[in-house]
Amino acid sequence: MTEMESAAEFAAVPDAFQRLWTPHRMAYISAGADVNRGSGCPFCAAPERDDESALIVHRGTHAFVLLNLFPYNSGHLLVCPYRHVGLYDEATPEETTEIAALTQTAMRVLRQVSRCDGFNIGMNQGHVAGAGVEEHLHQHVVPRWGSDANFFPIIAKTKALPQLLGDVRRSIADAWPA
Question: Are the C-beta atoms of residues 84 and 143 closer than 8 Å to each other?
């Protein structure tokens, strides 16, 4: 019979497992799945906070741009009107014009900062369409790279994000045109 060895003796010994260390995600895990529930609308609350803590990269007249707290990829931005409106057809012409212009600027900045190869852009309208925050209109701008697809999202339902949100916010905000 083989004697069982203590794992403590092997703490620094390489093994066959690849590890994805994401200690910054513990804040979201600790808060639970509904981190924004109970605290009101996160897109109404964000402009009341400072840009760094709210992950805002730009404030416009009718809309603003912030990082997604639960990104699909590094640099995943959301373009939101300040006004609490749920559907695109309820937005004013001024809001839709600025959302469109900010989306274009977001694409230019993300190409410059992250050298992405393409984008997924869209809005999920209503719960049935997959909106995480269905009460407040928001446009997703997700940068994509030819090499960003791997087995994590498919097999493990996990996305590997190489940068901390604060670092990504700072680089995008710094590159945003005045």
Answer: no
Query: How far apart, in Å, are the Cα atoms of 17 and each of 14, 20, 143?
Result: 8, 10, 29
CA–CA distance, 100 with 103 (Å, rounded to integer) = 5
CATH number of 40-175: 3.30.428.10
Q: What is the pLDDT along the chain (178 residues), one digit of tens a residue?
A: 556 555 556 555 555 555 555 665 555 455 544 444 445 899 999 999 999 999 999 999 999 999 998 888 889 999 999 999 999 999 999 999 999 999 999 999 999 999 999 999 999 988 888 888 889 999 999 999 887 665 555 555 666 666 788 889 999 999 999 8
**DSSP reduced 3-state for 154:** helix
**Which residue ranges make up each domain of the chain?**
40-175
CA distances from 156 to 6, 31, 69, 95, 174 (A): 28, 22, 20, 38, 34
Enter the pTM of the model: 0.74
Examine the residue annotation and report whether 140 is marked as an active-site residue of this protein. no
Catalytic residue among 58, 136, 138, 140: 138
Burial 53-82 (b: 16+ CB within 10 A, else e): ebbbbbebebbbbbbbbebbbbbbbbbbbb
- Alpha-carbon distance of 171 to 165, in angstroms, equals 10
Residue 68 identity: N
